[in-house]
Specification:
di-copper center containing domain from catechol oxidase, globular
Length: about 350
């Protein structure tokens, strides 16, 4: 219809063509606005569906309107790293809360090794106990050392191909040190460990090792070669994605502890591989990552906040009693004992945190 006037300027068109042309322009604009609005609405709907289905953000409870957000270590700027490391170092100056005769810094490895912490390994309470343990640590950093941020986590899935070059390692004051290269000592003739002599925690003196009192240095002895390669395979993103699709808590918890949880200690060695693994401050970033994976798993499954089960006792026979949400998480005096049910959701008055 408009082909005959196609080359003419608009002012030179006949009135009938101008009218038709104006109508076409209006219709065109309506069409484009409609399509644009449709695309915006569709995009928002898809975004909502993705967020809802993956539960990347969870609705706050009435008592947790402003959760503390935990972030990956490499997202911290230098000042944030300095603030966190100084808060951890501050723990060494705070007297023990549970009577270890040392500092609250050493209360945590003590509670893990000699208290109930180690007893939760191989049980259903492995993830809930460590979730509460991390929360207590975070609270002490905030309440007694003036730390204002959330507990960082180390997402080693980003580093699995070059795990020993991850940004958590470093010789400067804003990193956790590197492999132990100092004097060595022998623990009961079994393990030889190297003292960490660089980084923020260089030459740290500790007083508990496994289930005994033994003064020693913070130590690490990085694994190398084929064993390192085999261990890092557990940390591949593809393996973690498969783990997150595990339908039941019992299987998820068991696989998490037996393989994912043990891979990093086996790589780092030293204090990290002992019962007193919290002697190494990096342990808390590792366990925060494990807690984050459980948090993701909970939000990916319809009954993730209530799905719980497994052995109540370490090395229990299949016929032994099974754990339940009313079982007690004991903290050896670090904080009040609570029930498992109280830490299943991180967005309650007890915990009130989330992950970025």
């Amino acid at each position: 219809m408009f082909s005959a006037y196609k080359a003419l300027p608009y002012d030179e068109l006949p009135e009938s063509a101008k009218t038709s042309s104006r109508a076409a322009k209006i219709l065109s604009r309506i069409y484009h606005y409609t399509i644009g609005a449709y695309l915006v609405v569709t995009s928002l709907a898809l975004l909502f569906i993705v967020l809802h289905s993956l539960f990347i953000v969870s609705l706050p409870s009435e008592k947790c309107q402003r959760p503390m957000f935990r972030r990956e270590w490499r997202t911290f700027d230098d000042q944030e790293k300095k603030n966190y490391i100084e808060a951890v170092q501050c723990l060494k100056d705070i007297p023990s809360k549970i009577g270890t005769n040392y500092s609250i810094f050493e209360d945590f490895p003590y509670a893990h090794a000699i208290g109930d912490g180690i007893k939760t390994h191989g049980t259903a309470r492995f993830l809930p106990w460590h979730r509460y343990f991390l929360h207590i640590y975070e609270q002490v950093l905030q309440d007694q050392c003036g730390y204002r941020g959330g507990l960082p986590y180390w997402d080693w899935t980003l580093d699995w191909q070059h795990i020993l070059k991850a940004p958590v390692w470093g010789a400067g004051s804003l990193a956790f040190g590197t492999n132990g290269t100092g004097d060595t000592f022998i623990d009961a003739g079994v393990l030889q460990r190297n003292c960490v002599v660089d980084g923020a925690f260089a030459n740290t003196t500790l007083h508990y090792l496994d289930n005994k009192q033994l003064q020693h240095c913070l130590s690490r002895g990085f694994n190398t070669g084929s064993l390192l390669h085999n261990l890092t395979m557990w940390l591949r993103p593809k393996n973690i994605e498969t783990l997150l699709l595990t339908p039941r808590y019992e299987q998820f918890n068991e696989h998490m502890e037996r393989y994912i949880h043990l891979a990093i200690p086996a790589i780092v060695q030293g204090d990290f591989v002992t019962r007193t693994s919290p002697n190494d401050p990096l342990t808390f970033l590792h366990h925060a990552q494990l807690d984050r994976l459980w948090w993701l798993w909970q939000h990916l499954h319809p009954h993730g906040m209530s799905d719980y089960g497994g052995a109540a006792y370490r090395d229990a026979a299949p016929s032994a009693s099974r754990d339940n949400l009313q079982s007690i998480i004991r903290m050896s005096g670090l904080a009040p004992d609570i029930r498992v049910a109280e830490v299943m959701n991180t967005r309650t008055s007890v915990l009130c945190y989330s992950y970025n």
